Amino acid sequence: MSNLKSNVKKHIPKDWLCDLRILYRLGIETISDIARTGWVNLVIVTTMAAILLIFGACFRTALSISSFSKEIGNALEISVYLKNGTEPAGVKNEIQKFEHVQSIEIIPKSESWTKLKNEMSLPNIDNPLPDTLHVKVDDPENLQTVFDEIKTVPSVEDMSYARDLAQKIELVNHVVRTITIIVIAIMALLTITIINNTIQLVIQSRKDEIEIMRLMGVSNWYIRFPFIMQGALYGFVGSFLALFPLKYVQNGLNNVHQFFMIPSPVGAQSLVIAVMFSMSILFGAIGSFWCIKKHLQV
Questions:
Q1: Can you tell me whether residue 224 is helix, strand or coil?
Q2: Separation between Cα atoms, residue 27 and residue 20, nearest integer Å
Q3: Cα 62 to the center of its chain, rounded Å
Q4: Same domain as 44, residue 136
Q5: CA distances to 179, 269, 281 from 274, in Å
């Protein structure tokens, strides 16, 4: 029987005008469902806008905190003290081959000794300082990895870096990522719950009409689609309303970046807007889909 249906469908000519009429009809159905919901639409949209605003503000703040942490981390460097008689340029070339090494600066011992004598009153003795390399890595999280690799170089006498500060920066980044994931999970749960309850009200108001459509053999997706579109539309409108107060959050964070002379993350606002719209539309559609699947069994 299924093979017969497939063969029949293959020989039915495709009419794009018919497809457009179907889409038009589905759009009308979606608008009608929204109109049936009445003043509840305002409550739903404003509630979703508030949820999305909180999400957008948290996400945007997380990006700024990560930017601050990375900027501070980039200022961290590993100080490598070489043994006497070692050629600094040769050691530099060797370390430069290590993964995650971004740049290396050679500080000759004569330069360090001159600077130290200018800052302190020292007796006239031979220079006891070693040649030093200042090694910067591409990411603060890779400091310890590079540190352990440089330690294996035979020409290295001693090494140091701000280990405690690097660990605190890594902890801050971990906390920020965790909070962001939690906020996304909460936003998803609230959005799906709100949309689920709303679509359930619409389904109850159209129960007899939907039953007639099913008895007439109307496609399941034809019944589902207007509800899914309604949930997605709620997410879109909620995100659109959240853009206006979110702009003030963005301006405030930009002022903080300017005050500390740390550049704002490139494309941060565009990323927040794209993620906010995508997730709100997706979660709105998912909430509608689950609701109609559960209550109509179609």
A1: helix
A2: 10
A3: 9
A4: no
A5: 19, 9, 11
Assigned token pair, 296: 């109509």
Q: Which domain holds residue 81?
A: 77-161
Residues 6 or more apart whose CB falls under 8 angstroms from that of 44 comprise 37, 194, 195, 198, 234, 238
Q: Does the global pTM surpass 0.85?
A: no
Q: 106 - beta bridge partners?
A: 133
Helices and strands: H and E segment counts in the chain: 10, 4
Whole-angstrom Cα distance, residue 53 to residue 135? 42
Which residues have C-beta within 8 Å of that of residue 170, sequence separation ≥ 6? 140, 141
Shared domain check, 43 and 105: no
Residue 8's pLDDT is what?
41
Give the rounded percent of residues in the chain with a pLDDT score beyond 70: 72
Q: b/e map of 100-116 (b: 16 or more CB within 10 Å)? A: ebeebeebebeeebeee
Residues 175 and 258 in one domain: yes
Distance of CA 273 to the CA centre of its chain: 11
